[in-house]
Amino acid sequence: MKDTTGFVHAIKYSLHICWIAAKGYTIFNVMIQIVNALLPFITILLTKKLIDTLSLSFESQNSNFLLILILLGGVNLTTAILSKIHEYTQTMQENLLQNYINVELMHKKLGMDMEYFDSPKYQNILHAVERDVYALNSVAWNVFQFIGAWVALVSSWVLFSKESILFAIVVTVTILPTVIANQKYTRLLYMWSLEQTPKERQMDYIRWISGEKTFSSDIRLFHLKDLLMNKYKTIWSLHFNGKRKVLKGKTVITVFLNLLPEFVSVFILVSLSRDILSGLRTIGDYTLYTGLLTQLTGGLYLVIQTGMSIYGDKLKIDTLQRFNQYHNRILDKGDKDLVGPVSIEFRDVSFKYPDTDVYILQHLNFTVQAGEKICLVGTNGAGKSTIIKLLLRFYDVTEGYILLNGVDVQEYKIESLRKQFSTLFQQYVNYSFSLRENVTISDSQKTISDQEVVNILHQAGADHILQHAPDGLESYVTKFFSEKGLELSGGQRQKIALARALYRSCSVIIFDEPSASLDPEAEHTMFQNISTLWSDKTAIYTSHRLSAVHLADRIIFLEGGRIIEQGTHKELMNLNGEYSRLYHLQADKYDIKSGVI
Ligand SMILES: Nc1ncnc2c1ncn2[C@@H]1O[C@H](COP(=O)(O)OP(=O)(O)OP(=O)(O)O)[C@@H](O)[C@H]1O
């Protein structure tokens, strides 16, 4: 019963999607399907009439003979024309539906909370959905076929049962075990394929890194080719053997079960031949009877086949609906608009990542005045980037509050909140778009002149990139789409990402390790810009290069998710604590290298 409800629900759902995606083609396809199902019966009836007419003596034949021939020709012509039109409408419908599904999935993926990127469970279900989403398309197509198959089945059943109700029941009953076996194996196969999703993702991953530039150097240097190939082959063998086992079982059972209706058909034909020999039936009856029998068994098989395909699709649609139930936790809770300038306060903030037990940040208390520049310093994993993610509401705090201009961060509309921030992330990216788009993408509502984009590139120390760009601002970044695309060094890529962050109109700038790939001159310029060009903006940056850190108004030193020191550079040096120890550690190295000591 639960399955039947789910079955109907899946059909309704897919038809609903078809309707939204391709209304006209959907109606047309259903109509063609119904007409196509009825045409074979007209052919059978006309053939019977034709044979019966031919059996009469020449004199008894009348003008009906010609009419039947014309009608038969008409039916054949209609079938041929409809099949071609159907090919076209079906392809159009499939394209529209596929596009609709792709756009919907992209929309969902682009808006999901950051936490889902770290959830293998979510990634598995996403993989299964992307693999099986065509079910939405095929279920619609199968439903049309299913409707046609039922029309054909009911008509042939009614006509056949007029000849022999007993045989009609026997033929129908002998097919029932096939239905049960098919349903069992369709479910088994799908459940098996769901279990295989992590293996499929591992194979996808290996295939992906094999062609990915980022991994190419490691793969060649460490000779990872054989290792990757073997890893892939091992996973594939496990996958293949599992599938073979399930399919083997299905084949053995269904071959055996399919014999039953065949025996019944042979028995019916023998009994029919006997009736003709004893003169109880005509040759025309024989044609009608065998035609109807073929239609009946064909109709039964088509109903089972399409029914099972819909059942398989239903299981896939269930997964899609489970995927649709993944909802964001980071939601607009208030409707306030954040306007600059912006001050920040962390009030007793503690945080652990979703579905983990370890507190990454513990009882953080600090403030940043509007326009102030502070630097977060600390060992690897101390929690600096996590603070940035909380500020941008990529995650919500577990305990405590983050206040912006004295108001809880959750009171602001997310869009309005993020609008006030521009961030250069530690894992900065470049897009395989034009140089102009790589800069201006951070603030698409702004319209500025080419010269202003050039100025931004200058501020980011990226003028030389533009000077060597063959198509100026229109040059593609990376060679992914264009032979003339710019292949940039690590530092150059970081400068493009920096220009993007600078382009955005905002009140707070956040730079997470902004100088990681920059040369000393570019680093110097950037830190100078922070205190001069952006003097009115609140700034938070993190850096492991302590030589640049002293430019900040205040330094917050973190260790293990706790603030252990905070103050100006001078205050922390006088404190002679951890900051001072690390500062000396780095400074001493510079002295040794420069030969000062
Ligand atoms: N998505 C995540 N899920 C679970 N734990 C995470 C996640 N991201 C980071 N962590 C953990 O949080 C801790 C703090 O990471 P974070 O990136 O904030 O450190 P950091 O101070 O910026 O380090 P670094 O100086 O190396 O950049 C680390 O132990 C890290 O393993």
UniProtKB/TrEMBL annotation:
Record flagged with keyword Membrane: yes
Membrane topology category: Multi-pass membrane protein
Compartments (UniProt record): Cell membrane
Signal peptide: none
InterPro entries documented for this protein: AAA+_ATPase, ABC1_TM_dom, ABC1_TM_sf, ABC_transporter-like_ATP-bd, ABC_transporter-like_CS, P-loop_NTPase, Type_1_exporter
UniProt keyword list: ATP-binding, Membrane, Nucleotide-binding, Transmembrane, Transmembrane helix
Residue ranges constituting the ABC transmembrane type-1 domain according to the UniProt record: 34-312
Domain ABC transporter: 344-585
Gene Ontology molecular function terms on file: ATP binding
Transmembrane segments: 25-45, 65-83, 139-159, 165-182, 252-272
Name of the protein in question: ABC transporter ATP-binding protein
Organism, scientific name: Paenibacillus motobuensis
